[in-house]
Amino acid sequence: NYLNPESYRKRGNPVTTPMWFVECNGSLYVYSLVNAGKVKRIRNNANVRVVPSDTSGNPKREWVEAKAQILDQRGAALVHKRLTKKYEWMKRIGDIFSKLRKRDKVVIAIEVV
Questions:
Q1: Which residues share a beta bridge with 28?
Q2: Do the beta carbons of residue 10 and residue 29 sit within 8 Å?
Q3: How far is CA 28 from CA 11, 12, 21, 23, in A?
Q4: Using alpha carbons only, what angle is made at residue 31 by residues 96 and 27, rounded to the nearest 5 degrees?
Q5: Would the pLDDT of 74 be above 80?
Q6: pLDDT at position 76 over 80
C-alpha cells in the first residue's frame, strides 16, 4: 500500500518518505501538501528513486530510478479520485482535515526509467 520515493536535497542528501500511491497506465502517482519538503526537492531535481515499502518505509523490493513531475490541477483531479477509491475512508478523512486547515495539495507523477 506504500511507495517510498527518495528525493534529493540541493546538496545531494537523499530523503525518503513513505506515501500512499496509485498506479495508472504505467505511471505511479502520490500526493502531498504543496509546501512540503518533498515537493520543493522534486521541483529542484526531478530525479528520484522509488521502492514499494511498508508504513515505516522499509523496502519490500529493490530501488529503481525514476523521474518525478508535479501535475497541474486537471491531472490531479483524476488521481485524487483513484486514491480515494483505493484508500477509501482514510483518504476522505485526510481530505477533510486538509480542507479545514486550508492546505493545498499537489499530485506528483513518477515515471520509472
A1: 23, 110
A2: no
A3: 26, 23, 7, 5
A4: 140
A5: no
A6: yes
Rounded-to-integer distance, Cα 58 and Cα 52, Å: 8
Max CA distance (Å), the chain: 38
End-to-end CA distance of the chain: 21
CA distance 112 to 102: 32
Phi then psi for residue 20, to 5 deg, are -65, 150
Residue 104 and residue 102: Cα distance in Å, rounded? Answer: 6
Q: What is the reported pLDDT for 57?
A: 94
Give me the helices (H) in 6-108, please. 37-44, 73-100
On the question of pLDDT at 22 being above 90, the answer is yes
The whole-number pLDDT of residue 75 equals: 78
Q: 5, 19 in Cβ contact below 8 A?
A: yes
Q: What is the pLDDT of residue 104?
A: 87
Residue matched to cell numbers 529542484: 44
How far apart CA 22 and CA 87 sit, in angstroms, is 9
